[in-house]
Amino acid sequence: MKFRAWVTLIVGVILVGTLVRVQWLVGLGLATGVMLGVAYLWQRRALEQVVYRRHLIYTRGFPGETLPLRLSIENRKRLPVSWLRVRDSWPLNLSPQESEAMAPSHVPGRGYLTNIYHLWGYRRVVREFRMRLGSRGIYTLGPVILESGDPFGLIERHEEHELPATVTVFPELVPRTALGLLSEDPYGERGIPKRLFEDPNLTIGVRPYMPEDTFRQIHWPATARTGQLQTRVYQPIASQVMMLCVNVATSEHPWLGTLPEVLEQIIRVAASFCYYGIEDGYAVGLAVNGGVTSADQLMQIQPGRTMDHLAMLLQALAGVTPLITHPFERFLVHTASHVSMGATLVILTALVNPPLLEALTLIQRYRHHLILVALSETPPPSLSGVKVIHLPGVNEVKVQR
Predict the structure, then answer these.
(1) Residue 280, helix vs strand vs coil
(2) What proportions of the chain, in percent to the nearest 5, are helix, strand and coil?
(3) What is the pTM of this model?
(4) What is the DSSP string of 302-318?
(5) Interval 38-56: pLDDT, tens
(6) For 176-214, how does the pLDDT look when each residue is reduced to its tens digit (9 = 90+)?
(7) CATH classification of 176-197+238-396 is 1.10.10, yes or no?
(8) Residue 294: left (phi > 0), alpha (psi -120 to 50), or beta?
(9) Residue 264: exposed, middle, or buried by beta-carbon count in 10 A (0-12, 13-18, 19+)?
């Protein structure tokens, strides 16, 4: 019952008791009024200096893994909190193993991680959970709703806090044996004992600056001309660069909808190529013609070979959505024109149609390392100068954990 309703009821009881001259009724009204005053003052301060925190040691992982989660609630005042309910909006794909801690929510795909506490003054309570990671994605935690009130249960109070946090679930990896990469030259380039990647004496162009570039690589005249840091691009001697171009379209007409199983199959294979490419010493880049969570721009990541770069690639693939921003044929031709010469271009698609074959024929005229990875049911036609990998049953292969 709301505070005003309680006040109206108490005043009514006192007036009735006075009119009919019933002393116990007047006393009951006065006693209830005192209790209501105490309850009102108590609930006004119940949530003051109450601090709720999440402690996430790890914020990234693969499906099926469990990550530790620690929740702490602290009462930083002398007044006790007789009862406190904390409802933290939580993705169902990150549900804790303790299923009784989750409560349903009106938002699809989300629930409430609910905890109830009793806090004395200057008391801190810590609870630990293990959350199991579900399907790939970039998930946000929160907001958090704190609910409390007086010891009599007359008046309740609640507050909402954003407390934003993000947890990334990487795509699952397909075993190397299922990708057709068992030959000694899996990506179209034969390895050499001593890997020489660039000749600093032969500059063939410039590109935007990347954090991993050294100070000597900066092209100062181009920087002064454009107003942005530019880096020299050297002639590759023994190229170990792979650019992965991913088509997220699952049907000839995107407006008819998306096949979720096929899209997840594409993302799993793309993540596997990134992982094994960097494991084999390649600098791997990524370009996707689909939308990304919380972004409205094309996703294109320049090649890199560090473990941090691999994590960035997997995180980008975790956030890929079925929204198609550009037709894949035009997107592929545009991307290929910005990839360094000598690099291996890997095209991953579930649709092999005449426009794509024409684009590959065009690109093959000036590129020698092309790999077409087709996830279609029917094998694609053979193309001169293009290595074709047909993976019709990769969705049935047991994924790696």
Answers:
(1) coil
(2) 30, 35, 35
(3) 0.81
(4) EEE-SHHHHHHHHHHHH
(5) 889 999 999 999 999 999 9
(6) 888 876 554 566 554 444 444 455 666 788 999 888 788
(7) no
(8) left
(9) middle
